[in-house]
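hey team, just a heads up i'm posting the complex here instead of the shared drive bc the drive is being weird again. everything in one block, sequence lines first with there labels, then the predicted structure for the whole assembly after. its two chains so it's a bit long, scroll down
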Amino acid sequence: MGRRNEILKRATEVFERQGVTQTSLEDIARAVGIKREAIYYYFKGRHDILLEILLPQSQALLSGLHDIQQSEASARDKLHSAVEHHLLSYNPRYLEMSIALREDHFFGRDGRLGEIQLIWRDYGKLWTRLIEDGQRSGEFRGDLNAKLVSYGVLGMCNWLSRWFSPDGPLTIEQIIDTYFKLTVEGLAAR
Amino acid sequence: MGRRNEILKRATEVFERQGVTQTSLEDIARAVGIKREAIYYYFKGRHDILLEILLPQSQALLSGLHDIQQSEASARDKLHSAVEHHLLSYNPRYLEMSIALREDHFFGRDGRLGEIQLIWRDYGKLWTRLIEDGQRSGEFRGDLNAKLVSYGVLGMCNWLSRWFSPDGPLTIEQIIDTYFKLTVEGLAAR
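-- predicted structure starts here --
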């Protein structure tokens, strides 16, 4: 592993452990076992490292949803794939960082992090379109605001970053199944 | 307004604006217009202030849900009241702080903040019991894990702290109505 990749790997670990706002470049350098100054050969700073960790992941999330959206599946099946895609591809710990990123006081300091915000905005729009398409085709009820529904489902999924533990009794597969059924079929007994 | 209350009020504003992890006692003192040392007359530190802001609010949230749970209403009506209670009593901005609190690296530094974590744990348990009761009475389907459902609904609601703006086009009343219908009836057309 090259020095550059090692910095990215160690930085990810430190960000996960301490949270982004409480991680200094010094912390990252210590984890790699190099001097703080040596990092500047590869990265402009902490936010530059963070960007390089989050950007490819966010792009993959968006392009995966594009593929789902363009398939010939029913709206119901697309929704299942979208929930599955989101929960499987997003390491809940990484998500905490994305969440931190979305706080405006964080963004205000570095314009480049705005690239990720744009991807997330497009991702949210694509989710909303998926719901709208299902409403237009008559598969989904038309009386609920599609944007609100998509934010609701994303919120449900993203909240995992606050409680989910890979060592706990609930598996990701079970969560995907439950959240899909809850969203599409509802909790009321038939 | 006494000096003590003024410190709490200004601290809330600064926490909202900058986020908890990026707010120093110095920042709070500056907002009040006093010296940092003067704060120690009233509070032990930043976490002590934070506790005093969040504790009463968290307690009110829990006791309100207790009242709902003990009423004679149907499970469906209780769920509606619970969603409404949660979204109306929780100023989305305050919520950001609660979220910050729930990050373990934050908790580890000050045991007293654990009091809030305990309240939130009880609150989550009460939500789960509300779902379980509805499953036992036959109003709610029994094949979904009640804890997962309650975390899902809470996640849906708590996600508001990341996107909701009181100046935006969507009202809290509309959100309560949509999230309740989505949870109970589901998205599929009948």
